[in-house]
Amino acid sequence: MKDLLGYKDKICVVTGASSGMGKACAGELAVLGAKVYALDIVPPQIDGICEFVKINMGDKASIDGAFAHLPETIHKFFSFAGVSGEKTSPRETISINYLGNKYIMEEYLRERIPEQGAVMMCTSVGANRWYSETNKPELEALVHARDWEEAEKVLDIICEDLQKGNAYTYSKRALGYFTTLFACQMAGKNVRVNCLKPGNTRSGLTDEFVERYLRLHPGETIEDYHKANGLRPIAEPREMAEPAIFLNSDMASYISGAELIVDYATDAAVLSGIEKEDRWTGRKLVHTYA
């Protein structure tokens, strides 16, 4: 039978591989015959992976150390690592969710992903409409920072004006913006780059997202949180890992620069006017960059 996905013997790197979507993705890739390098803070419990490599996505030296242990050729890259922002400062949240990924794309993936390779960045439905007239201007300085050090200087300013609960959304908007730019840059090299935008999904961060929601919406319940975050019950990690595997597979050979929303028609209900616009997608988060 024809191998439609094309992962057999391909070198695949997965960040955030110890839990949730990243763990589900790494496990399924191993079953598909890929050579999987699992990156995270703690070792994953997954059968069939080639190697665990420790990484802190918010630390440049840690990223450099991790990539020193990885193959020079990486056929497929999957980035799931991230934090909710509830237990980290705004600077830490943005560094882990955005800056580390930007650095990896520019410093390593630009050269290590071969022709017909693919990159998948996990953003969020919370990043929907990052390109709007309200949202995009406040991302420009960080997205176009020339290097890690310049980005740190931008964060000095942004984090003075960014409330803790907003750092997650801001980081995912920035990642969506930069990943789209990177897709354009890599098109000439025949390397595909896409975003996966998960909706409400069960993970190690779920309790933290619920905690934030209840803090910001006094009097509401966990049931209200789930109603506000989807037309269907909460998704399982596998239901996000498999679309990610599709995006980086041979079956998606003409898909690049896309943002695949996996939310069971929740955003479709907003776009069609059935539901009101999400309270996050149209709201300005940083007033420094107007």
Automatic annotation (TrEMBL):
Keyword ATP-binding: no
Keyword terms: Oxidoreductase
Signal peptide: none
Classification via Pfam families: adh_short_C2 (PF13561), Epimerase (PF01370)
Location of the NAD-dependent epimerase/dehydratase domain: 13-124
Domain of life: Bacteria
GO MF annotations, alphabetized: oxidoreductase activity
Family: Belongs to the short-chain dehydrogenases/reductases (SDR) family.
Name the UniProt record assigns to this protein: NAD(P)-dependent dehydrogenase, short-chain alcohol dehydrogenase family
Species of origin: Lactonifactor longoviformis DSM 17459
Source species taxonomy: Bacteria, Bacillati, Bacillota, Clostridia, Eubacteriales
